[in-house]
Write a structure and sequence with these properties.
This protein has 379 residues and is of the alpha+beta class. It is 39% helix and 20% strand. The protein has 2 domains: 8-85 and 349-374, no CATH class; 97-317, Transposase Inhibitor Protein From Tn5, Chain A, domain 1 (Alpha-Beta Complex). It is elongated.
Length: 379
């Protein structure tokens, strides 16, 4: 074996249970299989066939830090192992790597949001597309974890499961209206974090009370303390966006306010967009355990939507996640976690590139860059 060190992130996956029986037919090590799969996804591959081909092309280099006792696994082996691998155990290893890489600091925004893998359905078996809820640290563009939504359920059941397994002390947790539940607010506070929850028609009385509260206040907006109002103006690709953020103490007449754990402020965000002579406006309401601070509310709201552009869009357009048809066993869920691991590693490695797509291709061509990506930020 050459002197090239093993990527230290593999250390965190060493205890992952192998789903295969210990027989003479088990010719490949679990860690070797996962390492080749991860490198393939980083390098621009998508499928088990790509993993087999990448492994064969890069076998001399891979042998510098992998055992490969019987060469490169077949594409069937990659598929079978990913389908059989326990996703919860795999996620636990992923979470240990993230914890070693990044410790949340006070006030850091963690966004929870759902995403559907649209082509992962199996019509013959009556299986709907896989839906995942992910946790995303906006400032570091790092995935903290993911949980699959039960095919017969929705995000409301998945969010508590994801919150349960995350370390969130000191963070600000943001969720869209689906996660605006009293139980979620209580769970976030129990985890030592603050919450900013979007309010829509799924909480009709709450939304009505917030709308009435802010309509009355905004009749005399200038009377609001400066800390409770914040305005931003941006021009982007010919589009002018103005956002008016308001954050105030909880109004006395708010119904059932005692049911929301440590509720300390309510928010109102008005967005006005002008493009091509057309003007559009949108209003969003929020409840939060943070003290009234419009600038802080603006940061939390803006970073929450970063998960759409910085994670969901990249996974669909660059990694082809929406087109992936893997569905056998746990293959779709485990592949999704590998993609998020690959994306996090690509983001952590500091070599400047025009885009993630270009960086993936470059990693496929340049083994030194690939090794730097595999070891990016690891302790």
């Amino acid at each position: 074996m050459a002197a090239t060190p093993s990527p230290s992130l593999l250390y965190h996956f060493r205890g992952l249970p192998d789903p295969r029986r210990q027989t003479k037919n088990k010719r490949h090590l679990l860690l070797d299989i996962l390492a080749i799969a991860l490198c393939t996804l980083i390098a621009g591959g998508e499928s088990a066939v790509d993993m087999q081909e990448y492994g064969r092309r890069k076998q001399p280099w891979l042998r510098q830090f992998l055992a490969l006792p019987n060469g490169i696994p077949s594409h069937d082996t990659f598929s079978r192992v990913l389908a059989a691998l326990d996703p919860r155990a795999f996620h636990d290893c992923f979470a240990r790597w993230v914890a070693a890489l990044h410790e949340l600091s006070g006030g850091e925004v963690v966004s929870l949001d759902g995403k559907t893998l649209r082509r992962s359905f199996d019509r013959a078996k009556g299986l709907p597309p896989l839906h995942l809820v992910s946790a995303w640290v906006a400032e570091n563009r790092l995935v903290l974890g993911q949980v699959a939504v039960d095919g017969k359920s929705n995000e409301i059941t998945a969010v508590p499961r994801l919150l349960e397994i995350l370390e969130l002390t000191g963070a600000i947790v943001t969720l869209d209206a689906m996660g605006c539940q009293k139980e979620v607010a209580a769970q976030v506070r129990a985890k030592g974090a603050d919450y900013v929850l979007a309010v829509k028609d799924n909480q009709p009385h709450l939304y009505e009370d917030l709308a009435a509260h802010f309509q009355e206040l905004l009749d005399d907006e200038a009377a609001l303390p400066r800390r409770q109002r914040y305005h931003t103006r941006e021009v982007n690709r010919g589009r002018l966006e103005e956002r008016f953020h308001y954050s105030t103490p909880v109004p006395q007449g708010l119904r059932n306010q005692e049911a929301w754990a440590d509720l300390a402020s309510v928010g109102w965000v008005v967005t006005i967009t002008q493009r091509g002579g057309e003007t559009l406006s949108e209003v969003r309401a929020y409840v939060s355990s943070l003290r009234p601070d419009a600038r802080r509310l603006a940061k939390a709201v803006r970073q929450h939507w970063g998960i759409e552009n910085s994670q969901h869009w990249v996974l669909d357009v660059v990694f082809g996640e929406d087109q992936c048809r893997a569905r056998a066993g746990h293959e779709a869920e485990n592949l999704a976690l590998l993609r998020r691991l690959a994306l996090s590693l690509l983001r952590q490695e500091p070599t400047p590139m025009p885009s993630v797509r270009v960086k993936r291709r470059a990693a496929g061509w340049d083994d030194d860059l690939m090794l730097r990506i595999l070891t990016a930020g690891t302790p």
